[in-house]
Design a protein that fits this description.
Blueprint (H helix, E strand, L loop, with lengths): L5 H23 L9 H35 L29 H30 L8
């Protein structure tokens, strides 16, 4: 069952390696004397094309192997459950997501000084802005 995928996968991997070799040969063998010659350009772009074709072959055969293993029951596919949106908040209030826990009250106590400091800073900046004429943005 799975052995029918061994040779195509091995061949696809060899095609990818041959494409990589085509990319490297002009530089490894120093045949590109004087910059990018026509031969260097030809080898480079041919190698890139061979790599793309080899990777597409490899991915296709791997997908076929995966589907075969799923059909045989060797691989179990887990289905994702759809994410549901939370319920709409009650009119005129903050949404309630259950009873407040001890961790939430601890977090509130930790963040309260930060919130008070930010409020004081913003109030001071607003008072300073109003004290100098409340000018709008300068163009």
């Amino acid at each position: 069952m799975v052995t029918k995928y061994v040779w195509p996968l091995a061949t696809s991997a060899l095609v990818v390696l041959f494409g990589v070799a085509l990319l490297i040969w002009p530089f490894a063998l120093h045949t590109n004397v004087g910059g990018w010659t026509h031969a260097t350009t030809s080898d480079f772009w041919s190698g890139l094309g061979v790599i793309v074709v080899g990777l597409l072959m490899l991915l296709g055969w791997l997908d076929g192997l995966r589907q075969e293993l799923i059909r045989a029951g060797v691989i179990e596919v887990r289905r994702r459950e759809p994410v549901t949106a939370p319920a709409a908040p009650p009119p005129g209030g903050v949404p309630q997501y259950g009873a407040p826990s001890a961790a939430n009250s601890d977090l509130d106590q930790l963040l309260r000084p930060l919130a008070e400091t930010v409020l004081r800073d913003l109030s001071a900046q607003l008072a300073a802005k109003e004290g100098r004429g409340g000018g709008g943005p300068v163009a």
